[in-house]
Write the structure tokens for this entry.
Amino acid sequence: MKWIADSIENSPPSIIGKLLSIASEYKDVISLAIGEPDLDTPEHIIEAGIDALKTKYTHYTSNFGFLELREAIAEKLDKENDFKVDPKNEIIVTCGAGAAIDLFMRTVLNPGDEVIVQDPGYFNYIYVSAFLDAKVVPLHVKEENEFSLKPEDLEEKITEKTKLLIINSPANPTGSVIPEKDLRKIADIAIENDLLVLTDEIYEKLIYDEKHFSIASIPEMKERCVLINGFSKAYAMTGWRVGYAAGNREIINKMGVIGAYTTICAPAVSQKAAISALKGNQECVEEMRKEYDKRRRYIVKRLNEIGIPTVMPKGAFYAFPNISQYGNSEKVWKLFLEKANVSTTPGTAFGRYGEGYLRFSYANSLENIEKALNNIEKVVKNV
């Protein structure tokens, strides 16, 4: 008897799992691999979580989340993103943004549907699509365009089977930001071709040189768009597991149906902490953004000085240097791990067009980043 479903058996091999396993065997490694804030959850959010525990918020909530949290999210989306949604019917709180992505894709995709994703891009989109027997269509985001998705490249990828376009801006792994003018053109293309759009905006608070613009704010996109966001990156709350989706009422409702029979609800205590995050003082977010910005400027400057060409990222906390002169992604990843004691992530973990690149996370202290780059500089001088 074959126990594993074909869609799982035939999904792409887990490159990231293999590489993390290898990296874990090395001692005293400086990790620039993990996409997680090294900074701590702000104190007032922690206190809100403690208060929630003490006041017995340890039970199930609605599968859509506390209404108070959904109302706070709706207020945030209206004020900051110019995106108006009904908190009772057009928002669902989930166990992190990753769960929101999974619920959304299971709600809308049929086997054989085509899904256009940025490549290099966040690997969850690739794997969840594969688990659902949908076809991933990689859209090459190019270094010469600062890894930003260009509308003219999108048009070339659309077929009669295209159902979904996934946008991630600011983007993992490249740190790219899609300009407003391009997002408006992308919206026009989506409307003209009757495409559904998932906009993943988990890094919206970590943007450095311009203002964030959401494609969901375009009125004509309301019925064909779902926005994903959460608290992990902006508020350093990865372990609290709170995210959300907002948009098309019918889709949100069906996501809630699936959620009721899977994760049930996001943790009540974490939801209470998330309310504090949204309603509390936002200076902590700006302080973290400024700290990441210092690291961003340092890491890009040093990499370019070392002789590793690196585009200045405009958002998130990743740099995506071109290491092709030293070998392919996996070879250079292993070289830096073995000779420099530095763990990064090969670009190939993020799609075929990630070959020739590494992802460096600067969600680590400036001191550790400096040590890592000093080690790498010594190694590349001898290559």
